[in-house]
Design goal:
about 140 residues; mainly beta; Jelly Rolls; nine-stranded antiparallel sheet; 1 helix
Amino acid sequence: MPDDLARVSQLQTVRRRLTVDAPSPRSVFVDAPNMPWEESKFPGIKSKTLYSDGNGVATLLLEMEPGAEVPLHEHTAIEQTYVLRGRFVDEEGECLPGQFVWRPEGNTHVAWAGPEGATVIGIFLKPNIFADGRPFFTEKRD
């Protein structure tokens, strides 16, 4: 079996798509550890946008200080959350490191970090709607 560098060199030829006669689009590698944290409109919550298509599909790395709260909001499509560190809690339960929760379209809740804070990856198909009118994390409204 070739080592990783030899394998990468071997695969650097332009691949073709399987479904149409066109080159395969390239992967996008994100150096998340070296990205700066962005302050959010929610006290005690910072984020890194790992992916956003500009139309609402987004993957966010969220760092929440102890007790930081995502205020009342409604999910406009399925949301998926994976907990990396700490506890991510809402009225329906809690997720610990390595655990996963998904919420269906129409789910409304308030979410917060446990006393140790939390780091989570959130995957969104559409921006949430917040009861107090604040924009979603990736929306650039004033």
